[in-house]
């Protein structure tokens, strides 16, 4: 088995509806710490948290549906790393 079955049981729309508020809450908390530590600039954090949440969910679906999950994981990991680096104050 390739992972949790709940998205298949509940349907992806309901699964995302249940998961997104929790993910956004934890992402907001992490982003607030990054602002406090001056790793990222102060800015509205909720849109960033929602975008990251969507990117992570989409990456998970892309990896799960890939014919080559290992290659997909590597590709999504590189893309997400680039996205995260873009949030840093100095971009590195």
Structure description:
- Helix 2 crosses helix 3 and helix 3 (45-65) runs antiparallel to helix 4 (69-87).
- The model has no long low-confidence stretch (mean pLDDT 87).
- The chain contains four helices and no strands.
- The longest helix is centred in the N-terminal third of the chain and has 25 residues, at 12-36.
- It is mostly helical and 92 residues long.
- 76% of the residues lie in helices and 0% in strands.
- It is flat, with a radius of gyration of 15 Å.
- It has one domain (6-87).
- The chain has helices at 6-10, 12-36, 45-65, 69-87.
Percent range for β-strand residues: under 5%
- Total helices: the number is 4
Q: Give the structural class.
A: mainly alpha
Structural shape:
flat
Summarize the biggest pleated sheet.
none
Number of domains as seen in the coordinates: 1
Low-confidence stretches: none
Radius of gyration: 15 Å
H/E element string? HHHH
In whole angstroms, the N-to-C terminal distance is 38 Å
Helix % is over 70%
Q: What is the average per-residue confidence, as pLDDT, rounded to a whole number? A: 87
Q: Count the E strands.
A: 0
List the topology elements.
Layout: H1 6-10, H2 12-36, H3 45-65, H4 69-87
Helix pairs in contact: 2-3, 3-4
Feature tags:
92 residues
What can be said about this structure in brief?
With 92 residues, the chain is mainly alpha-helical. The protein is 76% helix and 0% strand.
């Amino acid at each position: 088995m390739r992972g949790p079955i709940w998205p298949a049981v509940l349907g992806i729309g309901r699964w995302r509806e249940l998961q997104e508020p929790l993910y956004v809450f934890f992402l907001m908390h992490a982003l607030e710490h990054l602002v406090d530590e001056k790793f990222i600039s102060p800015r509205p954090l909720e849109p960033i948290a929602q975008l990251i949440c969507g990117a992570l969910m989409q990456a998970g679906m892309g990896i799960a549906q890939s014919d080559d999950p290992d290659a997909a994981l590597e590709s999504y990991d590189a893309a997400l790393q680039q996205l995260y680096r873009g949030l840093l104050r100095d971009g590195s």
